[in-house]
Amino acid sequence: PRSRPQPQSQPRSQPQPQQPLPQRQQNHKQSQNPSHTAPISLQTIIRDKVDVSQLSVKTIKGILKENCIDYSKMVEKYELIERMEILIKWAKHEMSSKAGEISDDGLCRICCDAQSNCLFMDCGHMCTCLDCGKKLEETKNECPICRETIIKIIRVFRA
């Protein structure tokens, strides 16, 4: 009776080392393709002059969401691409404009470096840049002007 449990335990121990091998191979395959592991940013798209039409719908939606751009009513990929191209155009415009050209009332009230370009809902105040607005939403979640709760942040493009 003692000899029977030993042979049964050996076959069970043999498959265990074999099971992790496919997982290692899968991880190796994933690491070879960086597009699946690292999300692309708006700055990377602009810097590397990436063709937006080659990006996946999921990637485009992620970038639009990150930049507080509403895409909920867009069904077709070409609509998302058009919205993305507008975002890129305005991002390039913001990068090219110098801080000295921005009037004091147009500066972010938090960092005083970037142009204020996000609107807080429900109060409607537009007093921060997108980066500071997101940080406020994550930490205090209230408008720095009126202290009303931030329901949503909307990115604004100035003419």
Automatic annotation (TrEMBL):
Keywords: Metal-binding, Zinc, Zinc-finger. Residues 1-40 are annotated as: Disordered. InterPro entries: RING-FYVE_E3_ubiquitin-ligase, RNF34_RFFL_HeH, Znf_RING, Znf_RING/FYVE/PHD. The keyword Zinc-finger applies. Residues 28-40 have a biased composition (Polar residues). One of its GO terms (molecular function) is zinc ion binding. It holds the Pfam family RNF34L-like_3rd. Residues 108-147 form the RING-type domain. The keyword Manganese does not apply. PANTHER family: CASPASE REGULATOR, RING FINGER DOMAIN-CONTAINING, RING-TYPE DOMAIN-CONTAINING PROTEIN. This is RING-type domain-containing protein.
